[in-house]
C-alpha cells in the first residue's frame, strides 16, 4: 500500500498543504505581532500623555467637577474617545456624545496618590504625583515674599560672577538651580553647609528649624555665573491641560506653579567692600510649618517614634530612609482631601477589545484546507494513475500472449506520451512476432522442398525404382547445394544480428568492382539488357567480397523480375561524402503496401514461394545487413508498372594517386 502512486501523491499533497499552512501562519503571526507591538507603543505613548494631563488635574483639584472641558480637549488632541468613570462605574466625563457604552476594559487608573509607573516611568518611589502638594501650596503673599528673598540672593550672586536659574517648585516655592560655574566659591563667598542631623547624601541646605518634632530644611542653593537678564515670566500652573479650570482649595483650587526655569541671574562685577553672599535659601513659611507639623504627627503615629521631617529644595517633604514607607502613607493621608478621588480612564471605542484567538476557528479553517487539498490530490492522482494502470493491464495481456493489447490515449503531456510509446512498442512487438512466425514457416517451407526431393530420390534408388545415374546424382547435389545456401544465409544473418559478422575492409575502386559484377551477370541475363554507368572514380574502404555479394544480390533480383527485352542499369557515383550504387530495372515494380517489407527476412510478394518466381527471401535482408555493417544503408523506391530502384549508400574515402 505504501508503494502505491496514489498514496504517495496524496501524502505529498497533504504534507505540502500542512507545510504551507504552518509557514503562512508563522509569517502572518510574525508580521502581525510586529504591527501589534508598533501600535501598542503608539497607544502607550498616547495613553501616557492623556493620563499625565488628567493626573495633573486630579493633583490640583479635590473633585472632578469641571473636568469635562479638559477631557474634550484631550480627545481632540489624541483623536480618540476619552472617558472618566468612578471605580464603581459611574460616568464622570465622556468626550463621546449620546452616552455610548464604555469600553470593556479601562486603559488606566488616574490616581495622583498611586500613579501607574508603566505610564509614568519617572514617577517617585512613593508613587505620589509631584504636583500633589495639598497644604504645602503657598498663598500669594508668601510666594511674593520668598520671591523677593530669592531675587535679593540673585542680586548678590551677580556680584560674585555666579550663575543660577530661579525655579518654582510644585508648591510655589522659588529656589535657585545650579547651571554651571566655578568649581570653588568666589572670594568672600561662603561654602554651603549641610544641616546638622540631615540625612547622609542630602544636598546642601539651610540650618534646620525645629518644629514640634520635625525639622525644615531650606532650599539648597547652587551658585554659578548667569547669562544676561531675561524677562521674568509667571509660570503656568503644572498639571493643567488646556481648558482646565483653576482655583484655590475649597472651591476651585488654584494649580501649583510648575517646576520650570523662571529667571536667570547674570553676573556683575563685585562691588568693593560688599558683604559675602549667603548660600542659605529662605526658611519655611508659616504655611509650610503648619503642614510639616501635621505631616510629622502622622509619620510619628505610623512609625511609633519621633521622626525628623523636612522639606527638600523643591518644597517636597522628606524623611530618613527608615521612615520612607511611613512618610509615603502619611503624605497620602494628608493629601487625600486635596486631590480628586481615583477614577478609571477609558481611551478608545466600545469595539477596542483585546483580540481573542479562536482555536476552534483556526482548527476549522485548517481542516477545510486539508480536506480541499486531499480532495484535489485524490482527483488529480486518480486521473494520473488511471492511464498508468491501463498500461500495466495491457502489458500483462501482452505477457499472456495477446499481441493486440493497446491502451486508449486520451491524456496529453507525459502521460499521453507514455501511452503512445507503449502502443508503438506493442505494435512493433506484435509485428516482430508475426514476422518470427512467418519466418519459421518460410524456413520450414524452404527446407522441406529440397529435403523432400533428396529423400524421395534416395528412397526410389533404395527400392530399385530409380537408378543412381550421373543425372540423378547431379540433381541431388543441386538440392544439397540449395540447402547449404539457405543455411549459409541464415548463419550470415545471425552473425550480423549479434554484431559478429566479420569484415575485411580494404581500398576498393568502385568502377572496377561494378564492372566485374556486371560481367558475371551478363552471361546469366539472357533476357534483359544490362548497362553500367560510373561517374568519376569513387573509392571505398570496404570488404570487396561482402560488397560484391550485396551488389550481386541486387542484380540477381533485378534480372529475375525483369522480362525479356527489359533493361537493368547499374550506376555508381559520388554524392557528397557518400558513394551511391544504384540497381534499376524495368520490371513490374512494387506496390506501396509492400515497400516497407522488401528487406524483411523470407518476405516475398508472391505467397506461393515458387522457385520459378523467386528465391528464398533472404537475399535483400542480407543486402541490408551488409550495407549497415559497412556503416551505410539500403533503400528502395518503386512505382507499380515502372520498375524498382535499389540504392546502396556507403561512406566514401578520398581517392589517392
TrEMBL record:
Q: Where in the cell is it found?
A: Cell membrane
Q: Name one Pfam family in it.
A: HAMP
- Transmembrane stretches, start-end: 6-29, 360-381
* Protein's name according to its UniProt entry: histidine kinase
Q: Which residues form the HAMP domain?
A: 382-434
Q: Where do the segments described as Disordered lie?
A: 170-208, 222-287
* Native source species: Actinomadura rugatobispora
- Catalytic activity of the protein: ATP + protein L-histidine = ADP + protein N-phospho-L-histidine
Task: Give start-end positions of Low complexity composition bias.
Answer: 237-247
Q: Where is the composition biased (Pro residues)?
A: 256-282
Q: Which residues form the Histidine kinase domain?
A: 442-654
* The keyword Transport belongs to this UniProt entry's keyword annotation: no
GO MF terms, alphabetically ordered: ATP binding
Recorded E.C. number(s)? Answer: 2.7.13.3
Keywords of this protein's UniProt record, alphabetized? ATP-binding, Kinase, Membrane, Nucleotide-binding, Phosphoprotein, Transferase, Transmembrane, Transmembrane helix, Two-component regulatory system
This protein's record includes keyword Nucleotide-binding: yes
Q: Which domain of life is it from?
A: Bacteria
Amino acid at each position: 500500500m505504501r508503494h502505491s502512486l496514489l498514496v504517495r501523491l496524496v501524502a505529498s499533497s497533504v504534507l505540502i498543504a500542512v507545510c504551507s499552512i504552518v509557514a503562512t501562519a508563522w509569517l502572518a503571526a510574525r508580521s502581525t505581532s510586529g504591527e501589534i507591538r508598533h501600535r501598542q507603543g503608539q497607544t502607550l505613548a498616547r495613553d501616557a500623555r492623556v493620563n499625565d494631563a488628567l493626573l495633573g488635574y486630579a493633583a490640583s483639584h479635590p473633585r472632578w467637577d469641571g473636568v469635562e472641558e479638559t477631557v474634550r480637549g484631550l480627545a481632540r488632541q489624541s483623536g480618540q474617545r476619552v472617558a472618566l468613570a468612578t471605580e464603581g462605574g459611574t460616568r464622570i466625563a465622556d468626550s463621546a456624545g449620546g452616552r455610548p457604552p464604555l469600553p470593556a476594559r479601562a486603559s488606566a487608573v488616574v490616581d495622583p496618590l498611586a500613579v501607574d509607573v508603566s505610564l509614568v516611568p519617572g514617577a517617585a518611589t512613593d508613587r505620589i504625583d509631584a504636583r500633589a502638594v495639598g497644604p504645602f501650596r503657598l498663598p500669594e503673599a508668601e510666594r511674593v515674599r520668598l520671591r523677593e528673598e530669592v531675587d535679593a540672593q540673585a542680586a548678590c550672586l551677580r556680584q560674585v560672577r555666579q550663575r543660577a536659574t530661579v525655579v518654582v517648585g510644585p508648591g510655589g516655592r522659588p529656589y535657585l538651580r545650579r547651571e554651571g560655574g566655578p568649581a570653588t566659591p568666589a572670594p568672600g563667598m561662603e561654602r554651603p553647609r549641610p544641616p546638622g542631623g540631615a540625612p547622609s547624601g542630602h544636598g546642601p541646605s539651610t540650618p534646620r528649624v525645629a518644629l514640634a518634632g520635625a525639622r525644615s530644611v531650606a532650599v539648597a542653593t547652587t551658585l554659578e555665573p548667569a547669562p544676561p537678564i531675561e524677562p521674568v515670566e509667571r509660570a503656568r500652573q503644572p498639571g493643567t491641560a488646556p481648558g482646565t479650570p483653576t482655583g484655590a482649595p475649597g472651591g476651585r483650587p488654584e494649580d501649583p506653579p510648575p517646576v520650570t526655569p523662571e529667571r536667570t541671574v547674570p553676573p556683575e562685577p563685585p562691588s568693593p567692600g560688599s558683604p559675602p553672599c549667603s548660600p542659605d535659601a529662605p526658611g519655611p513659611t508659616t504655611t509650610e510649618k503648619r503642614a510639616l507639623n501635621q505631616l510629622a504627627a502622622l509619620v510619628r503615629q505610623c512609625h511609633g517614634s519621633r521622626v525628623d521631617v523636612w522639606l527638600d529644595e523643591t518644597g517636597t517633604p522628606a524623611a530618613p530612609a527608615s521612615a520612607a514607607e511611613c512618610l509615603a502613607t502619611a503624605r497620602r493621608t494628608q493629601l487625600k482631601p486635596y486631590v480628586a478621588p481615583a477614577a478609571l480612564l477609558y481611551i478608545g471605542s466600545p469595539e477596542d477589545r483585546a483580540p481573542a484567538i479562536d482555536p476552534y476557528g483556526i482548527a476549522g479553517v485548517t481542516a477545510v484546507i486539508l480536506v480541499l487539498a486531499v480532495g484535489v490530490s485524490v482527483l488529480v492522482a486518480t486521473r494520473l494513475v488511471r492511464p498508468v494502470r491501463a498500461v500495466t493491464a495491457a502489458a500483462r495481456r501482452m505477457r499472456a500472449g495477446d499481441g493486440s493489447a493497446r491502451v486508449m490515449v486520451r491524456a496529453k503531456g507525459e502521460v499521453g506520451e507514455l501511452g503512445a510509446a507503449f502502443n508503438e512498442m506493442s505494435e512493433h512487438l506484435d509485428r516482430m512476432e508475426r514476422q518470427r512466425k512467418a519466418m519459421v514457416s518460410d524456413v520450414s517451407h524452404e527446407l522441406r522442398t529440397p529435403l523432400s526431393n533428396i529423400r524421395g530420390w534416395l528412397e526410389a534408388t533404395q527400392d530399385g525404382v530409380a537408378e543412381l545415374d550421373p543425372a540423378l546424382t547431379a540433381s541431388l547435389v543441386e538440392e544439397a547445394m540449395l540447402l547449404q545456401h539457405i543455411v549459409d544465409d541464415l548463419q550470415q544473418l545471425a552473425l550480423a544480428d549479434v554484431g559478429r559478422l566479420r569484415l575485411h575492409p580494404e581500398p576498393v575502386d568502385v568502377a572496377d568492382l561494378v564492372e566485374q559484377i556486371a560481367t558475371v551477370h551478363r552471361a546469366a541475363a539472357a533476357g534483359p539488357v544490362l548497362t553500367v554507368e560510373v561517374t568519376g572514380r569513387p573509392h571505398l574502404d570496404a570488404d570487396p567480397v561482402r560488397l560484391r555479394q550485396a551488389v550481386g544480390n541486387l542484380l540477381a533480383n533485378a534480372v529475375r523480375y525483369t522480362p525479356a527485352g527489359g533493361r537493368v542499369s547499374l550506376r555508381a557515383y559520388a554524392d557528397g561524402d557518400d558513394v551511391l550504387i544504384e540497381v534499376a530495372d524495368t520490371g513490374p515494380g512494387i506496390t506501396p503496401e509492400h515497400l516497407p517489407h522488401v528487406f524483411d527476412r523470407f518476405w516475398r510478394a508472391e505467397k506461393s514461394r515458387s522457385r520459378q518466381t523467386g528465391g528464398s527471401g533472404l537475399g535483400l535482408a542480407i543486402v541490408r545487413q551488409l550495407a549497415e555493417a559497412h556503416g551505410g544503408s539500403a533503400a528502395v523506391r518503386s512505382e507499380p508498372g515502372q520498375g524498382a530502384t535499389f540504392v546502396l549508400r556507403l561512406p566514401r574515402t578520398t581517392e589517392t594517386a
